Amino acid sequence: AQAAFVPQELTTVRVQDPRVQNEGSWNSYVDYKIFLHTNSKAFTAKTSCVRRRYREFVWLRRQLQKNAGLVPVPELPGKSTFFVGSTDEFIEKRRQGLQQFLEKVVQNVVLLSDSRLHLFLQSQLSVPEIEACVQGQGSQTVTEAILHYAMSNCGWVQEEESRP
């Protein structure tokens, strides 16, 4: 008998388009676009696009570590305050590191079961809002928050189309 064809679950995650926010002010920071495309049942939305900054990645990694028990959580690119080279170079290195981090995380079944990861990747909720949502104190469930974001206009489609 022919074995049923099971399509390969595939999740592509890209960290792209670093942008400096609040440029010129003392609290300027860089955020990155996280584009996710998947056919995995683990994800609520099949495509998503959010912007996150390094500090939020640091929070995410700490949370994943807390919940993953003995499962090793991938490393983030360094916090290097002393960096030789241009800012652009630093940002690009960090972008690559963040992408590698997420690529490893989304391939790990244990980490994928953490709803904080899903809200981080598929909603634009802030860190305190993610915490509240995960603890059931938000106005929406995790799935509702993700679907709400997916349906809203700030989802990825509009952003892709608004390019010249």
TrEMBL record:
The keyword 4Fe-4S does not apply. Signal peptide: none annotated. One of its GO terms (biological process) is vesicle organization. Its main location: cytoplasm. GO terms for cellular component: endosome. GO terms for molecular function: phosphatidylinositol phosphate binding. This is SNX11 protein. It is a peripheral membrane protein. CDD domains: PX_SNX10 (cd06898). Residues 10-127 form the PX domain. The gene is Snx11. It comes from the Eukaryota. Pfam families: PX. Keywords: Cytoplasm, Endosome, Lipid-binding, Membrane, Protein transport, Transport. It is found in: Cytoplasm; Endomembrane system; Endosome. Belongs to the sorting nexin family. Coiled coil: none annotated. The keyword Membrane applies. PROSITE patterns: PX.
